[in-house]
Amino acid sequence: MTDTSEPTDDEKKRPKTLLRSGEDNGPCDKDFDGANDEALVIRLAILEEEHRDLDAAITSLEQNSPYERLTIARLKKKKLQLKDEIGEVKDAMLPDIIA
């Protein structure tokens, strides 16, 4: 069944949008720039907090039990990985400017 009824008053008042070939009305990347920035800020805060927590744990282990070398080494490795991730997130937050 096809609907051949007249458009309602609301439909008549709406402006008609014309699409160029190859375009759609869906969201594009520029619509989500703010959301992406906020996600990066949140991710950065989480990574920095985790980095501080690992630093405190390493310091505590080094002072209290010097025989936990393997655990301390693993925590230090994880801390370095977090530092690299923090650097990547900070780089992603900076705009690419060609001077």
Which terms would index this structure?
single chain, 99 residues, mainly alpha
Task: Describe this protein's structure.
The chain starts with 8 loop residues before the first helix and ends in a 6-residue tail after the last helix. It contains three helices and no strands. It has 99 residues and is mainly α. The chain has helices spanning 9-13, 33-64, 69-93.
In angstroms, what separates the terminal alpha carbons?
Answer: 61 Å
Structural class of the helices, strands and pairings?
mainly alpha
Q: Count of DSSP helices?
A: 3
* Rg, Å, rounded: 27 Å
**Beta-strand content estimate:** under 5%
Q: What are the segments in which pLDDT stays under 50 over at least 5 consecutive residues?
A: 17-23
What's the arrangement of secondary structure elements?
Elements: H1 9-13, H2 33-64, H3 69-93
Summarize it.
With 99 residues, the protein is mostly helical. Helix content is 63%, strand content 0%. The protein has helices at residues 9-13, 33-64, 69-93.
